[in-house]
Design goal:
alpha/beta, EC 1.1.1.3, sodium, 17 strands, HDH_CS, 430 residues, six-stranded parallel sheet, methionine biosynthesis, eleven-stranded mixed sheet, ACT-like_dom_sf, 26% strand
Length: 430
């Protein structure tokens, strides 16, 4: 039998995602009620400016007083799609204090203050769900937290930022430079007016922190994620990748160490072979591999951003939280029992693609090779091209630590025969 008293929802934010959440809640109210077992009522929508036109959004629900909205004693669930650290954090904590569950899409806040938010939710006996914080519509957090709860996840690797994937894809397929590709991404709405969070890897790093924490049952913050963006990726890097049968992607990589005593989380551009499934992920799509001991390799693929995809994930969480509310229960608690430390990037082992501009004369290759050997970095392949006294060397290493490679590059830069270390890029996806 369906409960007659409606569950009341407060929506914080009515931008691209928030307006789509409001629209779906309004137009599919009967379906949502049937799935939940009770009517769901949108009780108020907090916005910064109430005067802006918002087609399809009930104007009488708009308010600029978010504090008062979350402080109402009759609110069952607060949906937060404002973003940023404050005032979102304050409003979420106030919602918990007033006994409301929270559904959030705020990756930056969760990656920074997830421990505090989870502790507050647990103390209040309410849910904190955030499927929409990572990879848009792709079901990823719930499978990691629930479907794979009985398995041991060892690695999560994927493309989790649509803007950077679009830019790199255009650089690869059209030969465009970084600036041209970014301009196209902006014109199509894939990149923000200020794209820093995307192109410098901050967005992907926040998502990597969340994924690593859930996958390995430990606490990982965005500050512990090694981060490189794509602003230094050049057309020459893309061409070098093609010559190797690879493509360049911005990857988020979370790994449990072989001894099980630590974890690593990193975001950086990398060359991956065309034979790897991630190489075929085009334009603004996301894809994530999860490697677990019993389940093996699982791939999750789909649109990673946008109003409708993100709203889909928000509504999925809303249904789950409302069901829990009716049953007087909460979902899985925050699981951080392993307490594994995050290993610094200097200790991470990977392969490297190093491009050098050198003098075109006898003995240079031997000189360069001896520097790699001196620092324990073995060479897999070398490609040499020369012209008019100048030459380029492209060296692909076997697996080595970041610290060893850095020491090698420092020594190479000191050689008279090396004019420039043109680029360094990691190679992944073997």
């Amino acid at each position: 039998m369906m409960r007659t008293r409606p569950l009341k929802v407060a929506l914080l934010g009515c931008g691209v995602v928030g307006s789509e959440v409001a629209r779906i809640m309004t137009t599919t109210a009967d379906d949502l009620a049937a799935r939940i077992g009770a009517p769901v009522e949108l009780a108020g929508i907090a916005v910064r400016r109430a005067g802006r036109p918002r087609p399809g959004v009930p104007e009488h629900l708009l308010t600029t007083d978010a504090e008062a909205l979350v402080g109402r004693g009759d609110i069952d669930v607060v949906v937060e799609v404002v973003g940023g650290i404050e005032p979102s954090k304050h409003l979420i904590l106030k919602a918990f204090e007033n006994g409301a569950a929270v559904v959030s899409a705020n990756k930056a806040l969760l990656a920074k203050d997830g421990a505090e938010l989870h502790a507050a939710a647990e103390q209040a006996g309410v849910d904190l769900y955030y499927e929409a914080a990572v990879a848009g519509a792709i079901p990823l957090i719930r499978p990691l937290r629930e479907s794979l709860a009985g398995d041991k996840v060892n690695r999560v690797l994927g493309i989790v930022n649509g803007t950077t994937n679009f830019i790199l894809d255009k650089m690869d397929t059209t030969g465009a430079g970084y600036s041209e590709a970014l301009e196209e991404a902006t014109a199509l709405g894939y990149a923000e007016a200020d794209p820093t969070a995307d192109v410098e890897g901050f967005d992907a790093a926040a998502k990597a922190a969340i994924l690593a924490g859930i996958a390995f049952h430990t606490r990982v913050t965005a500050a512990e994620v090694y981060r490189e963006g794509i602003t230094e990726v050049t057309a020459a890097d893309i061409a070098s990748a093609k010559q190797m049968g690879c493509v360049v992607k911005l990857l988020a990589i979370c790994e449990r160490s072989a001894d099980g005593e630590s974890v690593t989380a990193r975001v950086h551009p990398a060359m991956i072979p065309l034979s790897h499934p991630l190489a075929s992920v085009r334009e603004a799509y996301n894809a994530v591999f999860v490697e677990a001991e019993a389940a093996g390799r699982l791939m999750f693929y789909g649109p990673g951003a946008g109003g409708s995809p993100t709203a889909s994930a928000v509504l999925g969480d809303l249904v789950a939280v409302c069901r829990n509310r009716i049953n007087g229960a909460t979902g899985p608690a925050d699981s951080v029992y392993t307490k594994l430390p995050a290993k610094p990037m200097d200790e991470v082992v990977t392969r490297y693609h190093v491009s050098l501009d050198v003098d075109d004369r006898a003995g240079v290759l031997a000189q360069v090779a001896s520097v790699f050997a001196e620092h324990g970095v073995s060479i897999d392949t070398v490609r040499q091209q020369g012209r008019d006294g100048d030459a380029s060397l492209v060296v692909v290493t076997h697996r080595a630590t970041d610290a060893a490679l850095s020491a090698t590059v420092d020594k190479l830069r000191a050689l008279d025969s090396v004019r420039d270390v043109a680029s360094i890029m990691r190679v992944e996806g073997e």
